[in-house]
User: Fold this.
Amino acid sequence: MSHLSERPEKPVVGVSMPHESAHLHVTGAALYTDDLVHRTKDVLHAHPVQAAKARGRITALRTGPALAVPGVVRVLTAADVPGVNDAGMKHDEPLFPDEVMFHGHAVAWVLGETAEAARLGAAAVEVELDELPSLISLRDAIAADSFHGARPVMLTGDVDAGFADSAHVFSGEFQFSDQEHFYLETHAALALVDENGQMFVQSSTQHPSETQEIVAHVLGLPSHEVTVQCLRMGGGFGGKEMQPHGFAAVAALGARLTGRPVRVRLNRTQDLTMSGKRHGFHAAWRIGFDADGRIQALDATLTADGGWSLDLSEPVVARALCHIDNTYWIPNARVAGRVAKTNKVSNTAFRGFGGPQGMLVIEDIMGRCAPLLGLDPTELRERNFYRPGQGQTTPYGQPVTHAERISTVWRQVRADGDVAHRRREIAAFNAAHPHTKRGLAVTGIKFGISFNLTAFNQGGALVLIYKDGSVLVNHGGTEMGQGLHTKMLQVAATTLGIPLHKVRLAPTRTDKVPNTSATAASAGADLNGGAVKNACEQLRERLTRVAATHLGANASDVRIVEGVARVLGGDGELAWDDLVRTAYFQRVQLSAAGFYRTEGLHWDAKTFRGSPFKYFSYGAAAAEVEVDGFTGAYRIRRVDIVHDVGDSLSPMIDIGQVEGGFVQGAGWLTLEDLRWDTGDGPHRGRLLTRAASTYKLPSFSEMPEEFHVRLLENATEEGAVYGSKAVGEPPLMLAFSVREALRQAAAAFGPAGASVELASPATPEAVYWAIEAARRAGEDDAGAAARSGAEASHRV
Assistant:
């Protein structure tokens, strides 16, 4: 077993425990960025001036009326920026634009003594626009050839030969929706300047180092004059990876110009209308199968709705291409990706980061093609799994490690869910109920873990041991409720060999751990856990030498377990607190900076080849639904999941992540329906679903009535921290099982073997139209049979 994955005696990792801030969360004592305003004196409040057109050139911006509003202190415009007027890493997102690019685009910010004064001041600012043509829908952008960014192509094998060898060839299109993050805490930042002009920014950000970088270049400062701290987030899901930077820069600019703390906190409507979403996609595809239903060739084009600027759209598309195979070996493939430029908010990272979109395309294809091939969808999926020992690689050339786990989790979930027996029950139920049908589907996932950009796969930590034996851990990851800090506490305690209560975690700050990567790509525990472990190993090595001298032994024979240093095979021991005090008096350094870089990664973005992922996470889910034939309304009766997290660092945290990810995925696929005004009226481009009253989120009523989650056992991942695997993003794709179960239930209203197309999100309305299509297929079959019978009688 590798040094990184090996666990010591009596580890704290692997123990189920609640989230380290759970008590604070449920009692309301947990502090978030905006809560700090009430602990800060003389805070000014910022409010955006939002344009009410989808696109237009600003011809006049009159701020005088705002300054006449009582309580308004200043209006921030482009003229106030001392550095670079841009809030993006691609330099295509002006903080104060001269051209409005989407409905709700902020063109100025008003600072007021109160939030209400700032709001009234923003309403008083006069903005004149020379309105320009806009593209709102993805299809309109494709038709207009409106694209930006790279256009990668993934190619493997001989696609033309693959189609020539195919017994069955199908083609189709599929467009599916974007998704709103709807984190509980909206975007927030609080900035203040000290007496030396140093900028300190509290930000609800998944990427403090990048927030620091953007704030610094907007203010024209070097990074060492800007410190960014993230105490915790009330959810992020990727929406706070890139997009907090501009809001933090507004707060910092206001603080710099006024000398007073400035708060930016979006209300829910502002957050919905100003922040990016999960990318909606359009897919055009052609697929070939042999006579046994095995994939021979795939030719597809995936188009992401990038919105008005690039943001993270290029890597999102890249990851979509890298996941279009999901669990299936595709020997010949040509998949092209592109980013459409539309006049909507700039779409961004969202849990799965393009992986769900790519995987949804192939799962939709399998669900649609199975009946056309005369196969049960479960059987079609099984026949195309990656197989161990076959030398199979992904379409981008990476070997699929532990491919046997695809079948293992598949078999386990079918056994746990008693799938064979329940299918017989469902068949009997459907035969007896003409207006209500049930469906049960099993789907699997294979998700690559690491950032596609190799340089991002690094993490840092700073661990401090104080004279009394207490330990403070700083690391570069951010806590958004996912339990990263809990796992890091467990990693530190395990590595040092001390009880958990000895360790505390500090808020994430750029002046403690520099140049960190975003807490994203499900790599937070891998990268920061590796760095924390590295720092603690340095400290443990120093302390074991001290203990060895004290106990008269060799350092290699000393073990620190449960807070006591002992010699192997000996009687001597030294308590942790005494050991630390002894080390201090011997002038042994009691702090260490840790670092970790993921090894074995290589990627060529131009040829779209390489091994961009450290490993793959696997999972399988079986979902059963019941659908009403009159309304399309449905309920999820039961879900069974088996998911691979390696050797879990914290099982309770991981099971919670699996459950939460699954429900969020089910929301994207079945409920959450973003709507935009695509008409030519005065509100063109306006987001219509701008509140929880119009944007349907999963709630208790959408939870499965039975929900069983099991972590795969005996699944140690070599070369990962304490043998664990990532958990944040992969479970979201397990929700494909719900969508495929809905497809099967809708198909049950029609003739056997009917292929059903299902929109995404599969809202009750969409399910109803799928049911109607299945019924029409049955009527068409009956009509054809009647006509055939009449012709036969005539011939006789």
Confidence is low (pLDDT under 50) at residues 785-796. The longest strand covers residues 436-449. The first helix runs from residue 22 to 27.
